[in-house]
Amino acid sequence: MNTLPLWTSDAMRAAMRAEANGVLPQAISGIAIDSRTLQPGEAYFAIRGAVHDGHNFVAAALKAGAALAVVEKAQAGKFESNAPLLVVDDVLGALVDLARASRARSQAQVIAVTGSVGKTSTKEALLHVLSAQGRTHASAASFNNHWGVPLSLARCPADAQFAVFEIGMNHAGEIEPLVKMVRPHVAIITTVEPVHLEFFAGIEAIADAKAEIFEGVEQGGAVVLNRDNSQFARLSRRAKTWGIARIVSFGENEKADARLLDISLHATCSAVHADILGDEVTYKLGMPGRHMAINSLAVLAASSLAGADLALASLSLTQLVPAAGRGGRHTLVLAAGEVTLIDETYNANPASMAAALSVLGQAKVGPQGRRIAVLGDMLELGATGPRLHGGLNDAIKAYHIDLIYCCGPLMRNLWDALSTGKRGGYADSAANLEAQVVAAIRAGDAVMIKGSFGSKMKTIVTALEKRFPGKAALDEAAV
Length: 479
Fold this sequence. Notes:
alpha/beta, Udp-n-acetylmuramoylalanyl-d-glutamate--2,6- Diaminopimelate Ligase, Chain: A, domain 1, UDP-N-acetylmuramoyl-L-alanine:D-glutamate ligase, Protein-Tyrosine Phosphatase, Chain A, 3 domains, nine-stranded mixed sheet, 17 helices, about 35% helix
């Protein structure tokens, strides 16, 4: 069992050029920015956010057992004179400095992941695969922005053998400073799709923004790109301009370095036969969907490039399960039978919507069951939003979805495009659609719920789980 602290207070003070106040403990077990989830022994960073100022929660953090708090010099006078503090000019800036110090001391093979779709599931798959072969650190949840990346990096143990970081963006220029902090040995771009179009002129501009990840790749490092994607050639050229010689491609394209040779899709998993950098492997992927199988090629390629054993990595994919809100399955119990609920509520864009509908199309249903999609607005699509929402009807037809419930003003465009027999119900908000969905489901159905996070589709998932408790909940009640 590891007994080394994550940081010492002396190392933190030096990395952040901080002034010490009070008596500081030698060992720091972790880094926290939320006083509600802080664990005893962690350092609390009082970050000033858009809604809350972390300085207002320093007292609560110290009472909860924080080893120390990192605070701004301008606000240090608010706290007791003997409070254990590290005082800095800017707390977020200090966290960035600590992140850079963490990267400087690390001997881990570092992998960075970005892309329009599949960032988090790819990051989680890498964490799962690499953890079986050595101590592995990865970004928690979707900590992929200007505070999430430095927080994740600062939390990286000094003795980690592998480290995986997710890097996100919705504007040009966001990835560059983050990847220069992470300095990956391997960088993955899962795909480039028409998302965040509210902030970009077109898909080529999105590709250029994703290509910022190349600017931080370590000398002699590699990039892993989707050869099936329309932007592959553009990204490949951009990688070469940054002096990256090792460009590894993945996909179904016959020229892909990590190539899908054959696949058998099932309701809850896939059987995959692939060629990974010249080695053929056959494996079971514990998550359904062709898109997941394609991304698993990137996972195996990146793992191999990072020095992991390919055979063990492919074997580990059997136990892979979806991250929260990204395809997790629940069994709802009705009086007459069961319903499969697929939770895809974390986020949505046209590409991920089509992928989720394809998975729903593979879902098993009972004798009288239907495949039902409950869809909320996809946000940040700008002027193309109405057209892209209406265009989902093509995927609905292709994957033989029986019934559609639409939520939000943008999804009205899909509702208008649907044939009468496909229309389940429409409402302007998730709260107003909730009762319709709860009343409509019946034994044997498979229900998939998806929308952008801001469309609040999770409320419908919660309502269904409350109205029809699943097997696990019923078993607990019985005990």
